[in-house]
Amino acid sequence: MTAEDLIAFAVCDYGELYLHRHDGSVHIWSRLDGPANQVLVPLAPDLDVFTRVLEAIYRYSNACWHPYPVEEDQEAVSRVFLDEIDELAPGLLDPNTPGGMVWSWLYAGITELGVDGF
């Protein structure tokens, strides 16, 4: 992969996001290996999966902190989230992969952070 293959499209706290111009995959230029070593980490096979995972994080974090009466506890809601993402893109959230590690930082908003994201 060369720099010419990537289209910059966003920046977040964890790094700069890129879209591969030929296959549509989403990547993040992140300090996964420490503050001095940035690496290009694959996040999603395409923009559709990337967007749907972000939407699911938002939806399920709201369900964890502001559940409807029919929704179960936080652990059950997070399990439904994980199952949904695994069906959408198997292995995407595997914590043993660089992409899964980055996703775990965003997923923390569902189970580990407080209602206001802190």
Give an overview of the whole structure.
The chain has 3 helices and 4 strands. With 118 residues, the chain is of the alpha+beta class. The longest helix is centred in the middle third of the chain and has 19 residues, at 47-65. The radius of gyration is 15 Å and the shape is elongated. The protein starts with 5 loop residues before the first strand and ends in a 7-residue tail after the last helix. The mean pLDDT is 84.
Percent helix, as a range, is 40-55%
Per DSSP, the total helix count is 3
DSSP, total strands:
4
**Proportion of residues in extended strands:** 15-25%
Instruction: Give a short account of the largest sheet.
Output: 4 strands, antiparallel
Q: State mean pLDDT (0 to 100 scale).
A: 84
Low-confidence stretches: none
- Which strand order do you get reading across the main beta sheet? 1-2-3-4
The value of Rg in angstroms is: 15 Å
The termini sit apart by 36 Å
Overall morphology = elongated
| Element order: H for helix, E for strand | EEEEHHH
Secondary structural class:
alpha+beta
